[in-house]
Design brief:
Helix content: 40-55%
Radius of gyration: 13 Å
Strand content: 15-25%
Distance between the termini: 34 Å
Strand order of the largest sheet: 1-2-3
């Protein structure tokens, strides 16, 4: 319906963990029917979107590594600018990861949420 249901100004991937909690608490939303906008999307965020079953993503800046994940999981995406990689440690850690569940566990651990 093209309306804002969640917003966060936190850094790194914390908004996505908060979004996951929002979806759990508000189970009337179907993640696959939502469109997510994120300013910068690297491989880690792309894997989180896949894990959360998000099927539409819009972004200002996206890495080629994120594109690989979007194509693999058939996630519709638009970006204004594509870069080789995002300057973030998780982009390197997950550079060869395609399993969203494995990536989620790694990211949750790095976030100190396990």
């Amino acid at each position: 319906e093209n309306r804002l249901i969640f917003q966060s100004d936190k850094k790194w991937l914390y908004p996505l963990f908060d979004f996951e909690n929002f979806l759990i608490e508000n189970n009337s939303y179907s993640p696959s029917e939502l469109m997510v906008y994120d300013k910068i999307v690297g491989r880690a965020a792309a894997l989180m979107f896949a894990y959360l079953n998000i099927k539409t993503v819009r972004t200002t800046t996206m890495s080629i590594r994120a594109r690989q994940i979007f194509k693999h999981y058939k996630i519709d995406f638009e970006c204004e600018q594509e870069v080789d990689k995002i300057s973030c440690r998780t982009e390197e850690i997950l550079q060869n990861e395609f399993n969203a569940g494995n990536a989620y566990r790694i990211l949750k651990s790095r976030a100190g949420l396990l």
